[in-house]
Specification:
By secondary structure, this protein is an all-alpha fold. The chain contains eight helices and no strands.
Length: 146
């Protein structure tokens, strides 16, 4: 029995180590990726990609947009600015069903995601960001149609 406990403990430790090394490798690969299309697909794929990896992708999107202003126009034209803005709204709805034990972790994840989204949004003029936000359409309709 003791041998089983020791083996189980060793498996848990090696699993944690593998997870840590994998996470570091993914973060390093992401930091070297300049392909916005690939990064966008990772950032928007909720079903198959973990939140942590999606955050790395959003962080790298902000880096690419900052360093390569020429790609900003196509980013907006492809609808990616609007989709990135919508990520935080979707995260809020997905986390409404979580238990109380996970609230602190979720709040931290939401804050981190919001910071990364804001970093992407700061790559664009305020009027462009506002134009593609949900609030813009609502305020425009409100102003013209009461």
């Amino acid at each position: 029995m003791r041998a089983f406990e020791n083996a189980s403990k060793k498996d848990t430790e090696s699993g944690s180590e593998l997870k840590s090394k994998s996470s570091s490798a993914i973060e390093m690969m992401m930091s070297n990726c300049n392909n916005l299309t690939l990064l966008e697909n990772i950032a928007l794929n909720r079903e198959e990609i973990s939140g942590r990896i999606r955050k790395y992708a959003i962080q790298q999107i902000a880096t690419v947009l900052t360093k390569q202003p020429s790609v900003r126009r196509s980013f907006v034209e492809r609808g990616m600015l609007r989709k990135i803005q919508g990520l935080n709204d979707s995260e809020d709805h997905n986390n409404d069903q979580e238990g109380d034990d996970e609230v602190k972790e979720i709040d931290g994840d939401e804050q981190e995601m919001q910071v990364l989204i804001e970093k992407v949004l700061r790559c664009f003029p305020l009027d462009v960001v506002q134009h593609y936000s949900d609030e813009f359409g609502k305020s425009l309709v409100g102003r013209h149609f009461g």
